[in-house]
Amino acid sequence: MDPFTFPIIRSILDTDLYKLTMQQAVFHQYPKTRVKYLFTCRNQDQKLGYLADIVRAQIDMMANLKLEPEEKAYLETIRFLKGDYIEALANFRFDPTTVLVFEDGEGYLHIEMSGSWFDTILWEVPILAIVSEANFRSQCTEDEIERNYEIGRKKLVEKANLVNKYHFSLVDMGTRRRASFVWQNEVIGYMAKHCARNDFRGTSNVYLAMKYGLKAFGTQAHEWHMAHLSLVDDIRQAEGRALHVWQQEYDDNLGYALPDTFSTAVFFQDFDRTLTRSYDGVRHDSGDPRTFADKIIEHYQKMGIDPLTKYIVFSDNLKITEEIIVPLYLEYVSKIRVSFGVGTNLTNDLDFKALNIVIKMSECQGKPVIKLSDAPGKVMGDPNTIAAIKVAYHLD
User: Fold this and answer.
1) 17-140+355-381 against 142-214+224-347: fold identical
2) Cα–Cα distance measured from residue 225 to residue 301, given in angstroms and rounded to the nearest whole number
3) Is the CB of residue 175 less than 8 Å from the CB of residue 127?
4) Which of the four pLDDT bands, split at 50, 70 and 90, describes residue 108?
5) Looking at domain 17-140+355-381, which CATH architecture does it have?
6) Phi, then psi, of 367 in degrees rounded to 5
7) What is the C-alpha to C-alpha distance for residues 93 and 62, in angstroms, rounded to an integer?
8) Where are the beta strands (DSSP E) in 84-227?
9) Do 393 and 238 meet the contact criterion of CB atoms below 8 Å apart?
10) 2 confidence band (pLDDT: 50, 70, 90)
């Protein structure tokens, strides 16, 4: 039987919460804005063009998805999702004609989405999950898949034991690069059963949070900040505007600020006292984690804020091991509230090379947008725009 006869994505909520929170903000703040997204595989040796037909077919199947009554009822329990947005989501349907998929002349997979921001924003996470699962299942026989799961189960026990030993705060953020939905479902179910709720705090996957009675986590992603390059008259206003408009939308439910879109050097120029007090904390996603942690602790102290009242969420390519997470936790737990968002190492830590794939906004309102990051390998976008940002913010 063809393993791709049936849809990989079977719920509109099989996505990360930050896509819904951003879509709500777009619905209220930028309903007519138009954007474009591009897929990138950072594994240059992985020519994924052979998956084009499978991905195309799976995307077409998503046209049938809609918010089910029990899913709508669940969203109504999330205090910061507003009634008019939930109604709009209930009427939302994926439009496959907004997505272009093909194998290019060199064997690479090309995916791009374009259209209104509201209509296209939800494509990112499910398409990445489709590509990741299609690659895994195409490369393995059924027996090999089960063998991989058995290896994953042994590693999962070790991860849960480590959480239970040190009691650090952990959130699953692995939907985009999971081996499969079946495996992520098993991972979340196991962690929810075998770890205390104060330790395994929840998941970014809205459907699985609903299924297991966990807290769904997520606020904003890089695209929110990137888009504002095209939504302001002066690009120096982009970071500050993104943060303030988010505050306007979510009031006292701001969650965690993402500081590395245009580099943390830019972020700290705009993260003023009002914003610093309003946000629950920050999420670290690139660059040296200790360097950033020291900077944010110093920033809180300068603002007259006790860092132990704020969170830092480490989320950059983490591994749940004694060598990586534990030292970071022990070093900072007495200085600031610490949590860890782990993706691939939770949902695709098998005997199989996981893909490093992303989908990022490339244009907003017909203008190029970029991501600088604090890691050279994560810099993306139009070179001229990157150069303009560096000049505007006096970056090296």
Assistant:
1) yes
2) 25
3) no
4) very high
5) Alpha-Beta Barrel (3.20)
6) -110, 145
7) 8
8) 99-103, 109-116, 169-172, 200-203, 215-216
9) no
10) low
The answer to whether 164 and 323 are in contact (CB under 8 A) is: no
β-bridge mates for residue 313, sequence order: 283, 339
State pLDDT tens for residues 149-166.
Answer: 999 999 999 999 999 999
Tell me the Cα Rg of the chain: 20
Q: What is the pLDDT of residues 88-97, one digit of tens each?
A: 999 999 999 9
Per-residue pLDDT at 319 exceeds 60: yes
Residues 6+ apart with CB under 8 A from 20: 75, 81, 89, 206, 218
CB 77 within 8 A of CB 13: no
Domain ranges of the chain: 17-140+355-381, 142-214+224-347
Q: Is the pLDDT of residue 1 over 50?
A: no
Q: Are 326 and 123 in contact (CB under 8 A)?
A: no
Beta bridge partners of 170: 200, 340
User: Could you give the CA distance from residue 179 to residue 5 in angstroms, rounded to a whole number?
Assistant: 18
For domain 142-214+224-347, the question of CATH label 1.20.1630.10 is answered with no
Q: How many helices (H) and strands (E) does the chain have?
A: 17, 12
Beta bridge partners of 99: 113
At residue 124, the 3 state secondary structure works out as helix
Label residue 208 by pLDDT band (50, 70, 90): very high
Tokens 């306007």 belong to 248
